[in-house]
Amino acid sequence: MGAIAWRNIKDKNPNVSGHFGTTDPIYLIFYLSSYLYIYLSIYLIHPSIHPSIIHLSNLSIYLTYLSSIDLSIYLIYSIYYLSILSIYLSIYLSIYLSIYLSIYLSIYLSIYLPTYLPIQLSICLSIYLSIYLSIYLSIYLSIYLSIYLSIYLSIYLSCLLFACLYYHILSDYRY
């Protein structure tokens, strides 16, 4: 919610910049949620405002839910592009693997099949086996590669996102 409003403000006025020098809503949400957490925790500890503790805790819970919903919407949007990237890479790798496997299997079968079978039969079998095995293996490997790439890229990008957020928070508190 807040990130969408922030993005609309940024689109209308290009001179507006975020706290970390970027308009990426994840930094804004993280900064606002940490700021609200610190601010509300200080006021919850303060002894003169005990009657409003329930009100502040409800407000804190509401703002945390609001920021987490906005952050989850943004991350789902990012995961959409990540899935497209993993599908593209798996298709590219399956095409590459099918070409590579067909060449490799045709050479391998053309060398070893004539020792056991007649030449006519070995040529036919080497061609057909190399084509069918390469297609089968490329389909089989592309499925596993797409699953592996999607898991690997999601873990890698989430760790990278955490490291960037941690670095920006540390650099913000140093200065």
Q: Care to give the gist of this entry?
A:
With 175 residues, the chain is mainly α.
Taking pLDDT < 50 over at least 5 consecutive residues as the criterion, the unreliable ranges are: 1-10, 13-22
Alpha-carbon distance between the two ends = 29 Å
Classify the helix fraction into a percent range.
over 70%
Strand content bin:
under 5%
Number of domains: 1
Count of helical segments? 4
Beta strand count: 0
Mean pLDDT: 65
Shape: rod-shaped
Main sheet specs: none
Order of helices and strands: HHHH
Protein structure class = mainly alpha
Keywords: Membrane, Transmembrane, Transmembrane helix
Transmembrane segments: 26-47, 59-81, 87-109, 121-141, 147-169
Features:
single chain; mainly alpha; rod-shaped; disordered N terminus; 175 residues
Describe the protein's architecture and organization.
The chain contains four helices and no strands. The chain is mainly alpha-helical and 175 residues long. The protein has one domain. The chain is rod-shaped.
Which secondary structure elements does this structure contain, and how are they paired or packed?
Elements: H1 2-12, H2 25-45, H3 53-112, H4 119-174
